[in-house]
Amino acid sequence: MNFIINASVLIFAAAIAIYLHKGKKAKTDTRRDFLEREREANSTRRKSLDDLDYIRLSIEEFPMDLLDDVPKVEDYKQIIQTLSERPIVNFTGINNTELKLRYGAPNIDLLTEYDQNYTVLVRTLQQWGQALYDAGYVDEACHMLEFAISTGTDVSATYRLLCRIYTEQNTPEKINDLYPVAEMLNSAMRNTIFRILQEAGQSGD
Predict the structure, then answer these.
(1) Around Cβ 11, how many Cβ atoms within 10 Å?
(2) How far is CA 118 from the centre of its chain?
(3) Assign residue 73 a region: left if phi > 0, alpha if psi is -120 to 50, beta otherwise?
(4) What are phi and psi of 49, to 5 degrees?
(5) What are the residues whose beta carbons fall under 8 Å from the beta carbon of 96, sequence distance 6 or more?
(6) Contacts of 174 (CB under 8 A, 6+ apart)
(7) What are the tens digits of pLDDT across the range 90-116?
């Protein structure tokens, strides 16, 4: 009996050792692959940025004449005005190594700036849209949120508020139009956004 128990313990210990060894090897291989890709990325020469999907802002499309007495809204307007003069590109879900491989290591600082501009843009659109909604300017808020989603934003609050507006305006069928956008998201927030759309669709039935 003791022999069987000891043998079982040894087999279990051996299995654990093999598992840990494989895990360590996989981690080592992953790190080696990463370092190799990073080395290749850092040696990639500068490439043209002309084909980037730049986001263009037209100030005329934004409600610059509303909520003039609200300081935070005035801040949003100034941010959008500033961004309208800067390059904006959505690189959500693309890491620096991939960017360098695609566009060259010398461009990484520019690309990072473009992506940061995008982050500021979608955050500002969400906050401004919420402020408009809270103040009763629902159509203007809807337009702003729809624009944000057209750029591929993964800000879940934008989808949630737009779904609420669609439901309140008795146009819940528009929620279905958001699914293809969510399907294209290259973001960790993709599943969360899908749940928001599903819950909003069910509540609108």
Answers:
(1) 10
(2) 10
(3) alpha
(4) -105, 15
(5) 41, 108, 112
(6) 166
(7) 999 999 999 999 999 999 999 999 999
